[in-house]
Design goal:
Largest sheet: 5 strands, parallel
Structural class: alpha/beta
Strand content: 5-15%
Shape: flat
CATH architecture of the largest domain: 3-Layer(aba) Sandwich
Radius of gyration: 29 Å
Strand order of the largest sheet: 2-1-3-4-5
CATH superfamily of the largest domain: P-loop containing nucleotide triphosphate hydrolases
CATH class of the largest domain: Alpha Beta
Number of domains: 4
Helix content: 40-55%
CATH topology of the largest domain: Rossmann fold
Number of helices: 19
Amino acid sequence: MPKAYLMVVEDDPLQRRLIKENLEAEEYAVFEAVSGIAALNVIKEYPIDIAIVDYKLENESGIDVIQLLLDQNPLLTPIMVTAYSNVENAVEAMKKGAYDYIVKPLDFEKFLLVLNRALERQKLRREVTQLQDTLEERFSSQNFVFSSPKMEEVARLISKASKSDATVLISGETGTGKDLVAKSIHFSSRRKNGPFIALNIPSLPETLIESELFGAEKGAYTGAHERKIGKFEAASGGTLFLDEIGDLTLPLQVKLLRFLQEKEFYRLGSSRPQKSDVRILAATNQDLEKMMDSGDFRQDLFYRLNVIRLHVPVLRERKDDIPGLVDHFIRIYGEREGKQIAGITVEAMNLLLRYSFPGNIRELENIIERAVVFSEGASVTSEDLPVFLKEEREEALPLEGLPLKERVERIERLEIKKALKENGGVKSRTARALGVTERILSYKMKLYGLEKK
């Protein structure tokens, strides 16, 4: 079996043969093409991994050929080869989808290094695609939709974690989808036919957490009229997801640590150890390292949980994912509401792309659900979105080019709005914060249309 399937797109027969022979000596299967059409025919017939494309072909640009190939097969990894070693060509090629850029005459050792890196990327992208296919099948009603490089890395780590039984610590802000990541790991793992049980620690009274986790014998506490099976036993053969692990009390941290070390636990009110074949996944929106420094989280437990660390980035750092998520939620809630909504207008999408989403994916989903309910047309429009998104747009408008008077008014209006928000709309506090009298503030609010109606 060849190491990989490569294609050389080069109209110079001497160069084409030279590259082909060198690559075949490295045990690659190499196919040739002299034009974009010929290259398309090759990738339709063979599972090409890497396309090595010359920048200047006889009647067409290599960049155009790369775009043509990627339209046919988005998982293909192109490498550009050229004699024109200028920055503009390099930037243009990378923007259009080239993985890397090699200059003639070829230094074959360096070329092989680039090729190896490209094949690693190719392998990762195939793993990510396979994982997405699995998730689409398992969680068709969920929101694991992405296209950003940051989420590709998350998907790669999910794929790695799903092949292991090691504990996983999932970190990220509220609303980023940590629970979905945990489900994805479970349903892609060998435990997928076992139970997946989630426990949100802050949602339970402190006095009940121990019995919820470890179970309790009859009479162990007031109201325990029969034996209670805890989550550790119930999840045996599967996965137990402990959400917001940073809220676990220190005494219970000790008991969780014992389970992770000894693989046994005690029901409340019993001295008989119990065994359970359960994998632990934990999630937090807190900084556990800081909590260790302050003594609120055990260092030994942290290292037991942190065997595989997976951080879910906030939505404002991966805005490439917003269009796909928006389409996904429109489809879900459109079906629920019995509406045929084709998509979203450009203006409405721009409002969403400019917003910072402090509530992350959960907030985006809520906004789209509301928009679908309000929508009366074939597309979601800016009128279907919350008013505050339009206010965000106003704040994002540039000041450059405006007359001085308009600049001052814009800045003054935005500062008053910000101060009102920070002071809960209380005029006296807002006036003090801005260093003006309440009378002047009232006048300015009326002038700028900021008074409540």
